């Protein structure tokens, strides 16, 4: 059931935690940083959370004004959840928590969502600002993301690009390993763990932190 528990503390930190401090709440915010997602997308990205728990947290976050629910235009017509403007202000908070948490030992076993890896990619990518703008397509777990690179900045968005200079299809664990060691790109391709097309050299540059 949704919770209305409160710390009853006037401190703004406590009041913020009254809104997003429940288990799974901030991970749902993480999953929505790149754009709207369906309930099934969120459920798949958070496999250790039950359907009822995901429903409860979404209801709480929507009721608090962090998220909103809307129906996509035809032909999709799906109901999706997305961050409100106030909810989007949590992005630097979530990213700061991620940076702080790098020193925490990995759990066993551990899941890894595509959103997590793409946040990491966006954070470490160092594209050359002098390079012309480029758009790439990345597919993981049967979902597609648009990666735009311009003026040395990487932007990630849920959905198909109108056109892409290069494409990459893989899984989150493989992409994460590739970001840790870009020199394994060719091996991952030859082993079938990566399918790459288009301007592969541009992909290599994107995945190499030194740009």
Structure report:
The chain has 211 residues and is an alpha+beta fold. It has two domains: 12-101, Arc Repressor Mutant, subunit A (Orthogonal Bundle), CATH 1.10.10; 114-207, SCP2 sterol-binding domain (Nonspecific Lipid-transfer Protein, Chain A), CATH 3.30.1050.10. It contains ten helices and seven strands. The chain has helices at residues 12-20, 25-31, 39-45, 51-63, 85-88, 91-101, 114-124, 172-180, 185-190, 200-207, and strands spanning 67-71, 79-83, 134-140, 143-150, 153-158, 166-170, 195-198. The strands form two sheets. It has a five-stranded mixed sheet with strand order 5-4-3-6-7, covered by helices on one side. β1 (67-71) and β2 form a beta hairpin. α7 (114-124) packs parallel to α8 (172-180). The longest helix has 13 residues, at 51-63. The N and C termini lie far apart (47 Å). The mean pLDDT is 93.
Can you tell me the CATH superfamily of the largest domain?
SCP2 sterol-binding domain
The third-level CATH topology of the largest domain is Nonspecific Lipid-transfer Protein, Chain A
Helix content: 40-55%
Q: In the residues, how many domains can be counted?
A: 2
Largest sheet: 5 strands, mixed
Q: What's the Cα radius of gyration?
A: 18 Å
Q: Approximately how much beta-strand content do the residues carry?
A: 15-25%
Strands, total number? 7
SSE succession? HHHHEEHHHEEEEHHEH
Average residue-wise pLDDT: 93
